[in-house]
Structure formats: structure tokens, C-alpha cells
């Protein structure tokens, strides 16, 4: 059985757009749908946390650093064949002062942590797939999320895909642009609706299958 870890934020956790913190069930979330598509030969492990960043402990919300939680997370789930990382949106909060390029550099730290973790089969590195998140829509400014993140988040999010792909190319790992398959729901401008979760799982499935076939060689 292949073990696939999905490491992300509220769009992996399953935050329902415009519902103030309600969550889609496992069968609706893209991780659960991916599990169904991959079948019993794969074990999809979901590690989604609302407001998770790449490397920052949030001075307001605390304990949100993806980098800080990553080593024990990898160790607790090993051996891992593939780690899918979909992060970056929350780094765009004004309080972090990050642009898209710097988010890419922060993502690089996560990738290198995974590649040097020894949490793959036989103590090797697992494969890594970076997924750039959906772009933030202008409707985010109509709700509390936009008020928290600041007006600059919309423009900065447009450059995330390019920068995350840059890191994937630099590290020689796989990349997928979520925006090529889905978009955020205008209800809050950040989170995916149930149809988008289904579409993302469908788009990721052949990508994941190809990676896992190569891992088996």
C-alpha cells in the first residue's frame, strides 16, 4: 500500500466558503475524494489546518507554522511514498510582509525538510508534489477574511503559482497548479466549494498515480 500525505491549510481541512468555520465531511473534501479515486492500494493521510502558513507562527493566532509541525508529522506517518503540499495562501497576510517570491523561498524550506527527512521507504526521501493554491478573489474583501489579510493579498496571490513552480523546478520535484482545474468560491474569495473539491481530486488523481508508479520503479 502506498502512503500519501496531504499537507495543507483550510482548503485541505475542508472549510466551507462563507459558513464561518463549518467543515465539509471526509467524503466531500478533496482528500477523501482522492482516496476514493486511488482505491484501496493507497492510503491518503489528511493533515489540514486552518490558517497554516509555510514557516510562520502567527503572532495573532499562534501555532500555525507548517515548518514547525512538519518533522513530527512526517515521522508519525512514515513510511511515506508521496507528500503533497498545498500551502502559501496564509503567508499573504499583511502582518507577515511577504510577496509571492518570498513565499516561494519559504516553500523551499518545507521541501528541503521533506527531502532530508528520511521518512520514505527504507529511510529514503518520499516523492514531493507541490500544489499551488487557488488564487484569492476580490470578493475576499467583502468579509472578515479580507479584513484580516489586507487588500494586497489579492494581487500577491496571482504570483504564487509561478513562484511555487520555480521552487518545484529548482528542487526537481513535481508541480500542479490548482488554478488550472478549480477556483475559489466567490462566497468568501478564498475557499473551495464542494464541486471544486471534486474537480481538484479528479485533476490530481492521474498526477498522483504517475508519481506513485515512478516511486515503485
From TrEMBL:
Read off the InterPro entries from this record. Answer: Ester_Hydrolysis_Enzymes, SGNH_hydro, SGNH_hydro_sf
Name the CDD domains for this protein. SGNH_arylesterase_like
Specify the SGNH hydrolase-type esterase domain's residue ranges.
Answer: 6-199
Q: Which SUPFAM superfamilies match?
A: SGNH hydrolase
Which PANTHER family does the record associate with it? SGNH HYDROLASE-TYPE ESTERASE DOMAIN-CONTAINING PROTEIN (PTHR30383:SF29), THIOESTERASE 1/PROTEASE 1/LYSOPHOSPHOLIPASE L1 (PTHR30383)
**Name assigned to this protein:** Lysophospholipase L1
User: What is the native source organism of this protein?
Assistant: Eubacterium pyruvativorans
Amino acid at each position: 500500500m502506498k502512503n500519501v500525505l496531504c499537507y495543507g491549510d483550510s482548503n485541505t481541512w475542508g472549510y466551507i466558503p462563507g459558513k464561518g468555520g463549518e467543515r465539509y465531511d471526509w467524503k466531500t473534501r478533496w482528500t477523501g475524494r482522492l482516496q476514493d479515486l486511488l482505491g484501496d492500494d493507497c492510503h491518503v493521510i489528511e493533515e489540514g489546518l486552518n490558517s497554516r502558513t509555510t514557516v510562520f507562527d502567527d503572532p495573532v493566532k499562534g501555532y500555525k507554522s507548517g515548518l514547525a509541525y512538519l518533522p513530527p508529522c512526517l515521522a508519525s506517518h512514515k513510511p511515506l511514498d508521496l507528500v503533497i503540499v498545498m500551502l502559501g495562501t496564509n503567508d499573504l497576510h499583511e502582518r507577515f510582509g511577504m510577496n509571492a517570491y518570498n513565499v516561494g523561498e519559504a516553500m523551499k524550506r518545507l521541501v528541503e525538510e521533506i527531502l532530508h527527512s528520511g521518512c520514505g521507504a527504507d529511510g529514503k526521501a518520499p516523492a514531493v508534489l507541490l500544489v499551488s493554491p487557488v488564487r484569492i478573489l476580490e470578493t475576499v474583501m467583502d468579509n472578515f477574511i479580507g479584513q484580516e489579510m489586507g487588500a494586497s493579498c489579492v494581487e500577491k496571490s496571482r504570483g504564487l503559482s509561478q513562484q511555487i513552480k520555480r521552487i518545484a523546478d529548482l528542487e526537481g520535484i513535481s508541480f500542479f497548479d490548482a488554478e488550472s482545474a478549480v477556483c475559489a468560491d466567490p462566497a468568501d474569495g478564498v475557499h473551495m466549494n464542494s464541486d471544486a473539491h471534486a474537480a481538484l481530486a479528479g485533476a490530481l488523481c492521474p498526477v498522483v498515480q504517475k508519481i506513485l508508479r515512478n516511486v515503485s520503479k
